[in-house]
Each structure stands twice: as structure tokens, then as C-alpha cells.
């Protein structure tokens, strides 16, 4: 199916077959492809925390305001951004790997690495949070498209208590939780939703 078709047909699905299993190989393959998404300076800050322990799912249920997809969907992923990805060591390592792979020469390696280090150097925590949110969101959308292409249904969730979720799953301050994604076999189609007419959302050169 084309990307256009997936986007036209995809709905947020809120009811899943709890007996339907998706293998970890399939999830790994979806994540591997989603990781090819564009990301700032290629620092690769997105982390995918897969929750497959039923006890943990039950723990998350009330934290996510009893949204049944948390326990019914085959796969539940906490989409995280890793603040340590901004560390100089990580930036140097990634550019060294690109150099070793033969993708660029030494001077481009050094130029790109230093440009990235300088880009993040003076950013506030709030700025870095926005950087992580951008990167994780792009990877999330890729994952949703890939999962739908593979014949699964999905839903994105921000309807949960962030602090309680991090406490329940022992997620440290190193990580920013951006959203939850549930993937599985839907038992009830997601309801249709409207979108603004395209002419209401396109502006040219200025916005008022
Ligand atoms: C960041 C984000 C958070 C969302 N959180 C929830 C949620 O917690 N619960 C829910 O039922 N739907 C959630 N949704 C789904 C939206 O309600 C849904 O995408 C929107 O109504 C459009 O419907 P559609 O996805 O079926 O096209 C979320 C979507 C996004 C992008």
C-alpha cells in the first residue's frame, strides 16, 4: 500500500484482540526501519521501550486512565528521547562510525561532529526537550506507518500521567517520555474523523 493510501485509511483503533500476538522479530524489524527516520544531526536519540509483561501492562492501565488498548493491544511501546544522545562522546562516536563506513571523509566527519556539538552546547533543557520531541515524533510516525503497512492497527497515546508512568517503569530523568504507541489487531474500526479543508491550513509567506 502506498503511503498516501495508508494515511487515507489509517484510523486510531481503541479496541484490540488480546489473544493476537506479534512476534518480537516483527517488532524489531519495524523499529529498525523506523530508526531510519530523519533526526537532528543523526544523534539517534529515540528509544523504544517495549512493554510485554502483563503485570506491567496492568500497572500502566490506571496510569493511562484505563484506556483498554494498554492491556489489549499486542504491543505497547513507550517512545522515549535519550538526553545522553546530546553528549559529545555520542556525537563523536556516530560521526566516527559514518567515517569508518566510508560515508564521508575525515574533514566532513570533523566538520559535522563539531557543528552538532556546537549546535547543542548552549541549549537549555527546555530546548533539548523540544529537540527530543521532534526526533521521537518523526520516528513514531514512521513506526505507525510501518505497522499499518504490515497490516496492524495502531493508536498513539499521550493520555497518561507522565510522572506515574516513569515511576512505575523506573524510567530515569535521562529519558523524556514523548508518547505511547499501541500496535495490534483491531476488533472494532476506529471512528472516522474529519480534517480541516486544506485551504484552511495552507498559508503563503505570512500567517495571521
Ligand atoms: C500525540 C497524540 C496523543 C494521543 N493520545 C490519545 C489518547 O491518549 N487516547 C486516545 O484515545 N487517542 C489519542 N490520540 C489519538 C487522536 O485522538 C487521534 O489521532 C485523532 O482524534 C484523529 O483521529 P485518527 O487518528 O483516527 O485519524 C492521540 C493522538 C496523538 C497524535
TrEMBL record:
Q: What is its EC number?
A: 1.-.-.-
Which keywords does UniProt give here? Oxidoreductase
Identify the InterPro entries for this entry: Nitroreductase (IPR029479), Nitroreductase-like (IPR000415)
**Span of domain Nitroreductase:** 8-185
State which residue ranges cross the membrane: none
SUPFAM superfamilies named in the record: FMN-dependent nitroreductase-like
Pfam families documented for this protein: Nitroreductase
Q: Could you give a GO molecular-function term held by this entry?
A: oxidoreductase activity
Q: In which family does this protein belong, per the annotation?
A: Belongs to the nitroreductase family.
- Name of this protein: Putative NAD(P)H nitroreductase 12C
